[in-house]
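New here. Invent one.

***
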Amino acid sequence: TNTGWLSAQWVDFNNFSELPPLKNSAARYEEGTKNLIGIFGLMEHLKLILEIGPAEIEKRIFHLREILINGLKDKGCEILSPISKKNGSGIVTFKHVKTDSEVLYEELIKKKIIVSLRSGWIRVSPHFYNTDDEIKELLNNV
């Protein structure tokens, strides 16, 4: 089988019913058309990360995480994620004590608050581009 159209020895493009043989070089592992929009998007995003700096990004993520965890605790939620910064990440997974997670998940999604549902737990993954107000909006809807 071919990995992509660039891996094959095409004579012409008149017959697509039979796959041509693979190229005899490392080009046999080429995929299809390159995702140029994705490549340029990745390049610009990497520039932004380097401009802000990983330490500042980490600081921002943990700031948002702190707002989120404190707000969830105030609402009596059970938090699955490690609380300590040493073992934690930006991802916060929780359950509401009075509301079924699937019901809460559906309500959040209806309000365009993007979270995921994992084995009965709601997972929030804030990143440096999220705002304090977005986290507070999520908390207001929990």
